[in-house]
Amino acid sequence: MEKNNEDKKFIYDKVYDELNRSRDWPIKVLTFVSALYVTLLGFTKIDKNSVELSFCMKWLIVVLMLIISIYTILIIIRQHKNYLKYRNIQIRLQKAMGIYEWKLDNETIFPLDMQNSVEEKTWSHFWGWLFYALYLIILTIMSCVLLFNV
Fold first, then answer.
1. Confidence of residue 98 (pLDDT cuts 50, 70, 90)
2. What pTM did the predictor assign?
3. Of 16, 8, 18, 17, which Cα lies nearest the Cα of 98?
4. Are 51 and 44 in contact (CB under 8 A)?
5. How big, in percent rounded to 5, are the helix, strand and coil portions of the chain?
6. Which of 84, 75, 91, 83 is nearest to 119 (CA)?
7. How many whole angstroms separate alpha carbon 38 and alpha carbon 109?
8. Strand pairing partners for 103?
9. Which distant-in-sequence residues (6+ apart) come within 8 Å of 30 by Cβ?
10. What is the C-alpha to C-alpha distance for residues 37 and 142, in angstroms, rounded to an integer?
11. What is the domain partition of the chain in residue ranges?
12. Residue 49 has what pLDDT?
């Protein structure tokens, strides 16, 4: 029986690591994209020795920014779905390990709603990824406007 609990704890630790990785990815990707857009605008707009771009080059940059933005949103949504999968695995492991039965001063430690599995759909608990997506859309629009605003 002891070996079985050790195996469950080992698997639980790995699932917890993946859960955190799924949670961290959107922030890392948004940081990279934000820095990329700010750097691009810095090269083209801020300095008096800024680079002059032709109209066609500006449109090419806009198209590339749109592709990067869409790809980033897809990554964020994929990581959200991965997070939901790993969260459900974590819940099942917690039930198997009897964690929800733990008590302190004769009261259960974990709320009952923490035991409920989450639907593994894009729109389940969407507030997090939607915020990131809206941030990215606004950043892209602002970058495009600044790029064309002379």
1. confident
2. 0.74
3. 8
4. yes
5. 75, 5, 20
6. 84
7. 46
8. 108
9. 72, 76, 132, 135, 136
10. 10
11. 2-30+56-148
12. 64
